[in-house]
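Section 4.2 – Deliverable D4.2 (structural model, holo form)

The reporting period included a commitment to supply a predicted holo structure for the target in complex with magnesium ion. Inputs used:
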Amino acid sequence: RAKSLGKARYEVFSMTMRAQTIALMQMETELRRAAEREEFLVYYQPIVDLATLKMVGFETLLRWQHPERGIISPGEFMAVAEETGLILPISWWVMAEACRQMQRWAVIFPRSRKLRIGVNLSGRHFQQADLLPNLRSILAETGFPAQRLCLEVTEGILIDNKEVAIATLEEIRAMGIGVSMDDFGTGYSSLSYLHRFPIDTLKIDRTFISALNSEESSATIVHAILMLAHSLRLQVVAEGIETREQYRALQALGCNYGQGYFFARPLSARQVEKLLARQSLPPLVRPSTEEDNT
Ligand code: C2E
Ligand code: MG
Ligand code: MG
Ligand code: MG
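Output (structure tokens):
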């Protein structure tokens, strides 16, 4: 009896495994097809100077325009993209596309010429020998200035080989490219060697910002991160600002930059064009909504 129970349990387990494997393989096939059919899009979320409320740049965020399911966010496919390595070519495509787009906008909207763009890279990029050559060729091919490009990386890139990752970051910085530590505060504690990271910006993770006005400990943590960052001469971006109260609190704490639905959602290229076409760059103070892409 015990034996048959065990067998039944094994079958249930293997069925789940099988279903999961099939789902993973389907998603992989779909992602490859999406790349071939050019179904990926770059969205641009404004980053704002909290002292002036002027837009200083964008973070580029990947979207998948699925023929049946509409616009899909990375949360639904990032795990598979990471696991299969598809995140490598997809992220390079995002970077090249964003640089080309910024160069087109520079011609039409002179005021966009000072804006910077942040591009997310995964930990996997730092295990590849083509990281620096790819960066160089994208900058050379698009003519986009290195000084206006910023790579967003997480502490995860330091897990495997810290020394190699740090050396690579140093070369990136020597090219004039900025480096942001993304989702700061959620990874493995890097406080002890933060001063050794060749980075120029910290992005405080959304979890601290969303609890800012409800949990006293969050305000304390954000305050401590700001003191630490500023003493290391790092700029700070607060991620996921959704309310006026959060924005006010961060401004009062001396946080340099902010990003979040309170200012603007991630925008399609067309929506960015509408923003750039206005007489002056608006102080982005009203919450806006993510419209469809038509
Ligand atoms: P991330 O780099 O931390 O990006 C910020 C995420 O927060 C984005 O989610 C953005 O849409 C979301 N966000 C911004 N403001 C708010 C807010 O006020 N409230 C809330 N609730 N969320 C806000 P998204 O676009 O779904 O991207 C998720 C993650 O996927 C990114 O986190 C990044 O790690 C990854 N990712 C996105 N695009 C790329 C890419 O091109 N390459 C790579 N390697 N990763 C990417
Ligand atoms: Mg990011
Ligand atoms: Mg982040
Ligand atoms: Mg994130």
